[in-house]
Each structure stands twice: as C-alpha cells, then as structure tokens.
Amino acid sequence: MSNQLFRALSPYLLQHANNPVHWQEWSPDALNEAKRLDRLIIISIGYSACHWCHVMEHESFEDDEVAQIMNKYFISIKVDREERPDIDQIYMNAAMLIQGQGGWPLNVIALPDGSPIFAGTYFPKSNWINLLNYFIEQYTHHSQKLIEQAEHISKGLKQFEQIPLIKETHHLNIDLLSQQWSLWKSQIDRRFGGRNGAPKFVMPNNYEFLLRYAKSSGSEEVKDFVQLTLTKIALGGINDAISGGFMRYSVDEKWHIPHFEKMLYDNAQLISCYAQAYRAFGVSLFKDVIYQVKDWLLEEMKAKDGGFYAALDADSEGIEGKFYIWKWEELEDILKDNLYPFADYYHCTKRGNWEHGYNHLHSEIPLEEYCRVNHLEERQTKNLFQQCKKLLKAQRERRIRPSTDDKRICAWNALLLTAWVQAYWATKDVNFLNEAIELSEFFEEKLMDNEELWHTYNHNTSYIKGFLSDYAPTIQAYIHLYQSTFKEKYLLQAYRWMEWTVQHFYDEKLKMFSLNAHNAEQLVSRPIEIQDNVISSSNAIIARCLWQLGAYFDNTSFKNMSQDMLQNVLNDVKKYPAYYAEWSILLWEQLHPFYEVAFTSERPDEQLCQLYSEHFLPQVLPIGTDQILSKIPLLKDKKSPYIYVCKEKTCGPPIKSLQELLFAIQEK
C-alpha cells in the first residue's frame, strides 16, 4: 500500500499526494480494507485554503515518524470537505458531541466501520503521536470499551437526524419578527457592526433578513445597524483594497485583520447582499463593492472552460497572508511621493499595523468623509488612490501567489448566478445579466445529467452526484434567472429540479430533506442540514423555493410542504434568529404574502429591472413570459400591454405604469 491521492481530482487531496502517509480517498473499498485488516481508521478532513490544515500537514503528515505509526496501525483517509459535505457534517457533529466545538483540520479516529470514537481539530506533532499511541493501546487491549464509546456517540449522532415534528401548528404573527430583533440586538456590536466580539464572520443572510424586517417594520434602528455593518465590512481589511474580493472572516472585532483565504461562496453571497442593500439605501459605497468583487471574480476566479473556482489559499510561501501585506519600506519605495495621504487613510505605519512589522490595508470611514475631514479634494484624492493601488497591484503580481482551488462546486456557482442577477437589478448593468446567462450555460453543459446535478467539476470531469446543498441554491438561482429574463424555460427547469428533489431527498416521516439522496452511499449517519452556517441551510433554501414555486404554479402541495418545514424549526428560529436567518426570511415571506405582479408588455424584463433598480421590493413575485402560450397559471387570460397586481389569487384591474404599480402594492 502507498499514498493513493495522486489519482484524486481535488486540489486539497493532491496537496497531500506526496506525503509519506498512505492516504486513501473515502470509498467503500477503504472501509472494507479497514474491516479486513481490523484497523482503526483516521479520517482527516480539510480544504485547500485552510491555513491550519497546511500547518498540520507540514508538522505531522510530511513527517516520517508520524507516517510510520499511521501506516502500520491505521487506515488513513483524506477527505476534502468541499467535495464531501455529507461526510464533513457527520464527523463535525461527532466533534461537537465529543469536544463541544469543531473546525478544520478535523481529525477523527473511527472503528473499522467508520463509527467515530474520537474527533478533534489541529494537533501539534507530539500531541498527535501521543493520541495515536493511546488509541493503538486502547484498541489492542480494550476494544470493547471503544465499541461501547462508538455506540454512545452514534446515539448522539442520531439526535442530529431527528427533527421534532410539531403536531400542533403554531400561529404565525407579525410579532414573531419583532421578538427576533429583540433577541438579535442584545448580541450586536453597535460600534463596528456584526455580532459582539471576535472573530467576525460576514453572514450575509443575516442582513438580507434584517433588510426585509427593516422594510416592513420601518425600524430606523435596524436600518442603521445593517448600514453600519455593511459599511464596516466594506471598509475593513476583510475586503482586499488592492484587487477586490472578500476574505473569509476577521480575527478582530473591527474587521481590520482577516483570515486571508478567499472563498467563492462568501463573495457570491456578499454581492447579493450589497446589491439588495444598495437598492434599499442607495449608498454609493455598496455599489462600488459590487463592481470591485465582480472585477476580482472575472480576473482571478473565472475558469476558461466555464464556471468559477472555489477558493484562493490563505497562505503563500508557507506564510498566512504574505501575498497581501506590506513593510513600510516597500510602500515608501513603490508609492514614493504618493505615500501620503494613502498610507494614512489605510492605517499603514512605520511600525506596522499587524504582526512582525507588516501592514495590512484597511480603512474606517468612507473616502468622501476622509476628504471632507482632512480638507482634500475628493476627485483628485480618489484618482491618486487608484493610481497607488495600480502600483501596489503590479508589485504584488511579482510575488508568489496563493494557490487556487480550481474545482468548480455546483452550489457555490449557483450562489454566484443569483448574485449576478441581484447585481443586474441593482445597477441595470446588462453585463451582470450576461454573466448569469453564461454561467447557466456552464450548468447545463457540465453540471447537469438529465434532471440530476453533479456536485463538482474539475479536470474536464463532472463527478460526485449532487447533494441537497447543490439542488437548493441551483433551483433558487434559476428562479432568479427566470425573474430577470422572463424566459419561461428557466422557471420550468427549476420546477423539474424541485420535483426530482422531492422524490429523491424528501423524508416523509421527518418532513425535511436529507443532505444525501435516498439512493446515495449509506454512511454511519444521515445528515440533515437545518441550521445556517457560512452558507444558508439547504433545507431553508429549498423551503423558500417550494413557497415561491407553489405560488407560481398554484401548487398547494409545495406550499404546504414549505409551511410544514418552517413549523418544524419555528421554535429554534424564534430562539436563535442569527443562526436561522434563511428560515427567518421564509417566515417573513409567509407573513407577507407576495404581490404576484404579472407583466405583459413587450419588454417586461426591462420594465422589472427599472422598477427593481429604484426600489427594494422583496414582497413582489414578478411574473412574465417569452412564450405565446404560457404554462404559468397567473398569466392565463392576461391581456397586453399591462401590469396586473394579484394577491392570494385575486387580481386588480390592469394598469400601465410603474407608478400605478407602486401605489397598488402600497410602496411609499
């Protein structure tokens, strides 16, 4: 046996292909080998952009002494968490049960059948060796004790699968939303935005919900908090001031210093969030952010053969953030006479604003405010800063770049497809819509197999059948693409995917969707994704899609299913709103029934874009078609060129202008 990862398609697994550890990919064959040899299994889970994954690889998995122990006594399996979110969730749940916390790298010791007996995160070499020796001794002399331990953990894992069915339907009322905000505001940072303390994750769905709540409640407090948070995130060091693109999270409470990896999913969700916030507030900084992230994505993350790459590493040359940080002497040499006020605005100093005397660019106030306070001419200063950034970018391009995880993940590209549509609505820039349509073509060429989706594409290969976490955002993205083009084929495709998803993922007993399809590989547990993480819960997204498709096609079954799902989690939604923000959006939608607005003019998509660019209207469900005979019930018997405003299957008289439409939906 030798290291088998050279066959892998995952960049993360290939990073470990030269380790002396005899790594295998996750497979039934690897588990069967563990059973045949009666060996414990090491399941080590991480991802390519993970800094501490690299540290542990260098300290332990590249070490011959460690490899000798692992190879002699264990079957060692490497898992890319981005390729196998199901495996990751199962063993992360185990870590939460055993340690009360999780993270990556996630290192699991399991019985030969994959049942976990221990789970932890990063271990220095000496600790890792001690841990291995402990379990070698325990399995040799006290195997029954470990079997009992595994059974106890397995019972705990089963609890994660059990969603308590609500037998009595809870009445939904508008007070639930204000109760959520009351809980939320006790935990917010009123100075720097986001939640109190550090680290701080961006969590865009939190602010998408709060935008809706602010709109319906008229709360200035909520509006101010959302605007403050998005402003601080945009100005902070978490946003790459040179090339654009957001990093994964801030290690401090001020959003100044990031953990330097850049993930596609964060940037896609943030485009959507800033686009909606720009429509709600009209803040020019938010529009600038949309374009900055777009430029970075097109320049660094777009693949020539379609789709967008997964991530950029946090490290280069073995040092976290080295690609992005600056010594004062470098800044002096590159910027020369232009150093001030640039260095002052971005808080760069001779001593450095970060560790080891380095500077990382971040600001605290918008540039126009800085110019006003310091009596600088705004246009001239802005041009100066742009020139400085070009010079720094040119110098940075001479450095060794962080590695790119070049696999394309269905779910994350679907989030970006939605983001392109949201950006189009916010800016009226048709280039965003063109990017969305082009990305949909990548889905249809590379990620679709009849009605099934592939999870991953890389090296000209589509592989791993899609999870619920792929279907949910893809259905959502195609609904958005239909709404931006009124090409009925996109909505019908979303509907077909939904029917397929219900058939293959829905659990009638639990009234929820499993992460894996019914016919997928049987694992030690069957994960169900309920709570939001850095990406919204796939069950929450699919429930929102059921609600919308139910409205479009008058499908009572879909709407009832969505209502049942919300009822099942409503107690947790009420208690922990920040961790159930996508469910909270669904709650908001069910409490504010859609205005179903049918456009029958010659260019209804342009009419809708004009409306959406000037107003944030989450209560509107737009309807239109490019077909002579539409399959959408609400378009039946609608004459052109008019706008029809309907609510709960009752339509008002035909109107012609957007002003009349705004009056009809009581938009002030």
List keywords for this structure.
four-stranded antiparallel sheet, five-stranded mixed sheet, globular, 4 domains, 668 residues, single chain, Glutaredoxin, alpha+beta, 51% helix, 23 strands, Glycosyltransferase, 25 helices
Radius of gyration equals 26 Å
What number of domains?
Answer: 4
Q: Which strand order does the major sheet show?
A: 1-3-2-4-5
CATH class descriptor name of the largest domain: Mainly Alpha
Please report which band the strand proportion falls in: under 5%, 5-15%, 15-25%, 25-35%, 35-45% or over 45%: 5-15%
Structural category: alpha+beta
What percentage of residues falls in helices of 4 or more residues?
A: 40-55%
Query: What is the level-2 CATH architecture name of the largest domain?
Result: Alpha/alpha barrel
Question: Termini, distance in Å?
Answer: 70 Å
Count the DSSP helices.
25
The largest β sheet comes out as: 5 strands, mixed
* Overall pLDDT metric: 95
Spans of at least 5 consecutive residues whose pLDDT stays below 50 are: none
- CATH fold category name of the largest domain: Glycosyltransferase
Would you count the extended β strands for me? 23
The global form is globular
